[in-house]
Amino acid sequence: MKKTTSWTAVAMLLASPVQAQNGIYPGDVVGAAIASDIARDRQAERDARRAPYASPGYGPIASAAAARDACAAKALYQAGADGKLIGRPRASNMATGWEVEGEIGFTGGDSIPFVCSVRNGSVSGVLLRR
Question: By the 8 A CB rule, do 115 and 128 touch?
């Protein structure tokens, strides 16, 4: 709204009496600014209805391989310094990203599975099943 107000003020200054001779009137400028603001709000509402849980910005994860790597790194971080990845994590498609499953091993032979969600290009959650 601040941008609209700023542009309206600038446009009104430019729509001086000299411009009125050319057919540009301050009332027309204000009306156009309001209509533009309404159209922008309506488009934002339509976008929100199409993807209600979408984050405003998308992350860099755009493939299953990148999702596996990012989830493995997050799971290892949560597991601690003595955790090691066992095998290769599996990534399966979801509507807005991937679900990654894998296993982390510890010294002493213990291991725990993990599940990770990647939504809209970024890791949205990691669950270590202890």
Answer: no
